[in-house]
Write a sequence for this structure.
């Protein structure tokens, strides 16, 4: 269902289904971009990011981007744009104590933070919250108080993900300087998003290192520290997760799914799938 809903607090929600891309645009607010089926490709500067149903993208205010889709494949997208005042109030709620919040005369101004514009996992609480919000909106819900509560909880969910994906992973790195840790995580996320977007291609360590602006040795050492997996292990797990979606939501033969997610050998794919999920791909499809 397609709609563009602007609330009285100037938050905006856009649901769109189609096969056509959009030209160059600028984000007017912090926005969270979800894809519920299909996939979208975002061009942000020199970066090309592909968003699938297991991930979402965050764009800061003022970012220049273009978005497209795979030719002929319909995409169902869902975007939430947070108004500056709503976001500032949320930040004040998070950072101020109760006494400050109750001080009506306070003039505390909290600047909007700049978040890492990268791909995040769309799972857990944020997935549950967004799907429930969309279900209500699809059914015509007009209660803006309830919608705003959903948006408030979506921000809480996102901040928790950001804390897990940036700050907690940064603390795992064996650097002394906090700023250095955050910068390394930013670069590792460039490598991670490259795998998210090109998982079905033949990716080399040199490709990842180049996109992360790190040497191969630094990439291997810091990636394992931050994510608990080597880049190759991360890529294999990502390919297996994407195969779950294809097996569940499409009727492509298993051998075709193998090549679609980047594996070369069906037998090794089946073995890895069974080891990871304790079920064969065919039985998973039948059960799903």
């Amino acid at each position: 269902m397609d709609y563009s809903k602007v609330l009285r607090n100037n938050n905006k929600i856009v649901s769109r289904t189609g096969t056509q891309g959009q030209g160059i645009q600028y984000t007017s607010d912090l926005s969270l971009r979800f894809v519920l089926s299909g996939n979208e490709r975002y061009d942000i500067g020199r970066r090309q990011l592909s968003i699938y149903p297991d991930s979402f993208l965050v764009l800061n205010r003022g970012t220049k981007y273009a978005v497209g889709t795979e030719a002929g494949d319909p995409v169902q997208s869902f975007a939430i744009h947070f108004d500056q005042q709503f976001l500032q109030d949320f930040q004040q709620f998070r950072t101020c104590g109760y006494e400050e919040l109750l001080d009506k005369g306070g003039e505390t101004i909290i600047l909007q933070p700049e978040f890492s514009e990268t791909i995040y996992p769309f799972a857990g609480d944020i997935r549950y919250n967004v799907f429930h919000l969309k279900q209500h909106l699809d059914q015509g819900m007009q209660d803006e108080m309830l919608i705003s509560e959903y948006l408030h909880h979506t921000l809480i969910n996102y901040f928790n993900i950001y804390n897990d994906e940036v700050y907690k992973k940064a603390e795992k790195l064996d650097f002394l300087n906090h700023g250095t840790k955050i910068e390394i995580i930013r670069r590792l996320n460039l490598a991670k998003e490259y795998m998210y977007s090109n998982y079905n291609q033949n990716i080399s360590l040199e490709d990842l290192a180049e996109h992360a602006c790190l040497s191969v040795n630094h990439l291997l050492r810091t990636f394992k520290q931050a994510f608990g997996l080597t880049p190759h292990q991360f890529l294999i797990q990502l390919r297996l997760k994407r195969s779950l979606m294809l097996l569940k939501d499409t009727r492509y033969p298993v051998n075709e799914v193998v090549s679609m997610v980047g594996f070369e050998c069906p037998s090794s794919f089946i073995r890895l799938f069974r080891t990871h999920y304790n079920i064969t791909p065919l039985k998973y499809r039948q059960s799903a």
Remarks:
- Residues 247 and 285 are 5 Å apart (CA to CA).
- The mean pLDDT is 91.
- The chain has three domains: 3-122, 176-228, 234-287.
- Residues 144-171 form the longest helix (28 residues).
